[in-house]
Amino acid sequence: MLEPEIYIHGSAGDKSVLQLAGIETAQTVIITTGDDETNIYLTIFCRLLRPDIQIICRTTLERNLAEMHRAGCDIALSYASLGANALFNLLHRVDLLMVAEGLDVFKVPVPEELVGKTLAEADLRQRTNCSVIGIDSHDKTTTNPEPDSRLPEEGEIVLIGTPESEAEFLKLYPGT
Predict the structure, then answer these.
(1) How far from 77 is each of 55, 62, 104, CA to CA, in Å?
(2) What is the residue range of 65's domain?
(3) What are the strands, taking DSSP E only, across 17-163?
(4) Is there a single domain that holds both residue 27 and residue 74?
(5) C-alpha to C-alpha distance for 134 and 96, rounded to whole angstroms
(6) What residues contact 59, with CB distance under 8 A and at least 6 apart?
């Protein structure tokens, strides 16, 4: 396996630069230029190159959120919605953390049928559109777990996804 480059100089609109950056094997692309039009273009370009990749975009203007989604962005973040959600989280203090408009972080017990499986074997991203961002077991917490991380018995997983993907997870694993 090739070691990833620390820094790649070039245009993100150039397919060879994106290939050098690992677009062909990456699970997610994060697009955060300072220009919304460029972000929309790059979203369309990345979606054409990899229809299955998760695309997260930042938008400067709230009014461009819908445009980002139409371009193929899975998760769009704006300064206004991030600020509003930070206030929501502070005021409501619940177990569910709203990260951005339409994006939640939630924790559930490891479903019985997934105990002992690796994240790669569980394939939750493809099955539910949720991403595992943490695994809690009795003695330790693992953030940003690797695909070969095993899901522990009596542990919990921390997931991030849209309300629809959370509902899909709970539909597939109703005992959680």
Answers:
(1) 11, 9, 12
(2) 15-82
(3) 28-31, 54-59, 75-78, 97-100, 103-109, 131-136, 141-143, 156-161
(4) yes
(5) 14
(6) 36, 39, 65, 67, 68, 76, 77, 78
Count of the separate structural domains present in the chain: 2
Dump pLDDT digits (tens) for 8-56: 777 888 888 888 888 888 888 888 888 899 999 999 999 999 999 999 8
The SS3 call for residue 104 is: strand
For tokens 């371009």, the residue is 71
pTM score = 0.49
And the tokens for 32?
């955060």
Residue 57 lies in a domain: yes
Question: Which residues lie closer than 8 Å to 95 by C-beta, 6 or more apart?
Answer: 106, 107
Q: pLDDT per residue over 87-138, tens digit each?
A: 455 455 445 455 555 667 788 999 999 999 999 999 998 899 888 888 988 7
Do the Cβ atoms of 102 and 163 come closer than 8 Å? Answer: yes
Q: Is residue 139 part of a domain?
A: yes
